[in-house]
Design goal:
Structural class: alpha/beta
Number of strands: 9
Oligomer: single chain
Bound molecules: zinc ion
Largest sheet: 9 strands, mixed
Length: about 250
């Protein structure tokens, strides 16, 4: 079953779309791992090829900002999947933006509309930064840090691609997570997405979160975006547009 699922994705040829000013957006898909139940975890890579300069010389390479977007980590929070879809399908990307899109890192939970992965682990408590053992339940942190294949896949993607900015979508706390590492970026995302800047309280310290791990164990910046329970279409559109705008204007 696994081979049947993976093969068509691996075989997919890069797709090209030509935007309004004649630059091509290259889109490639890569299976970066599999879930507990064998579902593929897929990364979509999108970047713009610079338009050819009329005199035939090569255009100067723009400085690249690499942005990773996770549509969901918790399978019962699915509004971010719509943001993923917008970013995957949009025709235009600014020069110098290297976009990595993962629809969900938790395809088993998404298929079941369940927060956890198929082992019952909250993947957003399973990372090796301030990880703490916790009782089984909706926020079970697992047997040990990175005990889950989905967490390892995500850790490996971040280590390999070294995104400058990682954005993860959640629900329903309604706000963009405050972050000591880069408040100007947090504020820009919050402003663009029409969300407040917020401190999320995970009943005390947030243990073992993916965002905490990225911010404290890698050079990149990670931001958590929490939509509300019901997410209107305009907010999905605005969130996708803001990812592109803020991502392409990041100060490196
Ligand atoms: Zn969540």
């Amino acid at each position: 079953m696994l081979a049947a699922l993976v093969a068509p994705l691996l075989a997919a040829a890069p797709a090209e779309a030509v935007d309004a000013i004649g630059s091509k957006v290259l889109t490639t898909r890569e299976v970066i791992g599999t879930s507990v139940e064998g579902r593929p975890i897929v990364a979509v890579h999108r970047t713009r090829k610079p338009a050819a300069v009329p005199d035939g010389t090569e255009p100067a390479a723009a400085e690249t900002r690499r942005v990773l977007v996770l549509g969901s980590v918790h399978g019962d929070e699915q509004a971010g999947l719509r943001v993923f879809q917008r970013l995957r399908d949009r025709d235009h990307l600014p020069a110098g933006l290297d976009l990595w899109l993962v629809r969900t890192v938790n395809p088993d939970g998404t298929a079941a509309h369940r927060r956890t992965n198929a082992h019952g682990v909250d993947l957003n408590r399973n990372f090796p930064y301030k990880w703490r053992s916790s009782p089984r339940g909706a926020t079970w942190s697992g047997q040990q840090p990175l005990s889950e294949p989905e967490s390892v896949v995500l850790r490996d993607l971040v280590r390999r691609q070294k995104p400058d900015l990682t954005i993860t979508f959640h629900q329903p706390l309604f706000g963009v997570g405050a972050n000591d590492k880069a408040m100007p970026t947090v504020r820009a995302l919050a402003r663009g997405m029409r969300l407040p800047v917020d401190e999320f309280h995970c009943t005390g310290v947030c243990n073992g979160t993916f965002t905490g791990w990225v911010n404290h164990r890698t050079d990149g910046l990670a931001v958590t975006v929490e939509f509300g329970r019901r997410v209107p279409t305009w907010r999905v559109s605005r969130a996708a547009a803001t990812v592109v705008t803020v991502g392409s204007q990041l100060t490196l």
